[in-house]
Amino acid sequence: MKFKKFGKALLMGALSAGVILCVTSCVRSYTVGYLYVTSTVTSESNGNGIISGYKIDHNTGFLTPINGLPVASGGANPGRAVLVSGSRFFYVLNQGVNAQGGATCTTANPCQNANIVEFSVGGNGILTPQQTFFPQGINPFRLLADGSGNFLLVLDQSAPDNSSCALALGASATTCGAIEVWQINQTTGRLTPVVNAQVTQASGTPLTYFPVPANPIDFLLSSSTVYTLFGTPATRDSVFPYGYSATTGQLTLSQNSSQPLGISKATAIVSAAGVVYVLDNQPVTIPSGGTFPAGTYPSQILPFSAAANGALQAQVGGIIPDDSTLANPIYIMVESKGKFIYVANQGNNVQGVNTNSGIAGYFVTTSPSYQLSFLNPSNYGTGSGPQCIVEDPSNQFIYTANFVDSTITGRAVDPNDGVLNPLKVANSYKLQGQANWCLVDGRTN
């Protein structure tokens, strides 16, 4: 049967409308990855914290809670967490609570019952608790995995036994912190302590940790060196290097001693785009004639190159100011293509009000690679008190988890100019409890 001219036109119009409708509404939506957040809220009568999890929508960045989560973290005050072995194992460091039941751990008022809990990562991002392990040091507060996924490293505020400090650090070291190294069984995920092959106790018993100078702030594994950032406002801040073996997990005392940084309010040490950055929450004055507008900024970022022997070399003229409206930088993230760097600023609590929170955005120059310049605009809002900053596996969205107002904030990355735009669906998500850390998983099967 043949269509008349009017019928053919009507049919073609219907087909065209169908094509347009499909283009605009039939774009396949799927989960590109999972976002996990550790929170201090107690989920059980025994005082455990929780781990929340969300599916990340590929098209919009929208977050949907994973079925079966939140899950109890297996201890109080969960902080840092890592994924290893092709995202099969998830480890969370539960820092415990002090004698008053608070989450602030100090040498004078240490937290008790710290542990590391292993979870298996199942289909649809579900987490199932497996085994629990117990660090020997006092107030463990940092956790990282090496690039091979064979070892975990834990940073303790204080070593288990101060009598061993001088054995590794010299006679003047009467107190010290510690790094514990744990080997990961690739089949079960079980952790086994790595014994210190260099230093033994006075009794001849090998140490199960590696002493570092007192008052550690943060640590970083970069290439074959572990850098521990330490110090106080009274003593100034320095970096202490250990050589690292990815084969054995051993830390080897370097020929380089601690390196003074000339600052006193360091908050973190982070590697991004092949550069080691130290973040510092003290003002810096930038003169005229440079990359950044002249003026005094509330905090700064110090770039370093790393020598083969682990020494850090400060970059000449490389001091980078934080955004003038932000303060207390705590973490750096370089986006997937290495074009932009984003700094999460925790802000400062003043009489219970958190101010100056947000993300500072920078261009990465190609020569020299350590030099940054502000994006336009350079300040992007977050929730109050961001603890971390991550990029989703599709390299489209950035999220922060925020402590003070218990939220997750999401933004979309403009691939051309680095600007962080609001998500089209929802920018903020309410958490149970106050966020401590976040990480993403790109394995969705």
Can you tell me about this structure?
The chain is built from two helices and 37 strands. With 445 residues, it is mostly beta strands. The chain has a single domain, classed as YVTN repeat-like/Quinoprotein amine dehydrogenase (Methylamine Dehydrogenase, Chain H), CATH 2.130.10. The strands form nine sheets. Strands 1, 2, 3, 4 and 37 form a five-stranded antiparallel β-sheet that branches. Strands 9, 10, 11, 12 and 13 form a five-stranded antiparallel β-sheet that branches. It is globular, with a radius of gyration of 24 Å.
Question: Briefly, what CATH class?
Answer: Mainly Beta
**Tell me about the biggest sheet?**
5 strands, antiparallel
CATH architecture: 7 Propeller
Give the quaternary arrangement of the chains. single chain
Low-pLDDT windows of residues: 14-25
**C-alpha-based Rg, rounded:** 24 Å
**Classification by helices and strands:** mainly beta
Write down the overall geometry: globular
Query: If helices are DSSP runs of H or I spanning 4 or more residues, what is the number of helices?
Result: 2
Number of spatially distinct domains: 1
CATH superfamily placement: YVTN repeat-like/Quinoprotein amine dehydrogenase
CATH topology: Methylamine Dehydrogenase, Chain H
Average predicted local confidence, pLDDT: 90
